[in-house]
Give the backbone structure.
Amino acid sequence: MQRPVQVYPPPCPTDLTPVSDVTHYMSNQTRSEKTNMATVRDEYPSGLRVLMQNESVGYMIDALMDMPGTHFSKSLLAEKAGVSRQSVHTHITLLVNLGIVKEVDGSDPIEYTLNDDDEIVRLLHRLEGVVNRRLNSKSED
């Protein structure tokens, strides 16, 4: 018997709720209700939460954005990101599965490279540009 394919992340029951309604709802919650909402957010994370679910993943992505075209080992990524090799070992699969990094063909031991052709990587570059422009325009005021 085949197992059903699990969709990740599963659809969140609040996906269609207007942001203003969610904000109003959350501001009127008790501490227990807010804890429950945090649990729901962990169970049904947005795309950004998936990328930032662990602090090490954020540091790894930040380092990768500074290493386009570079072939790197897990050890080099750990060094450049300022995280442990164990963290890289744990989270590199997520980055490969999302297409952010890819294995370098024929490398032994396995090396990786940032996948500049990936949609998420292009969006991350675009986000970085927008954030930098806005920060720079604020500092010039």
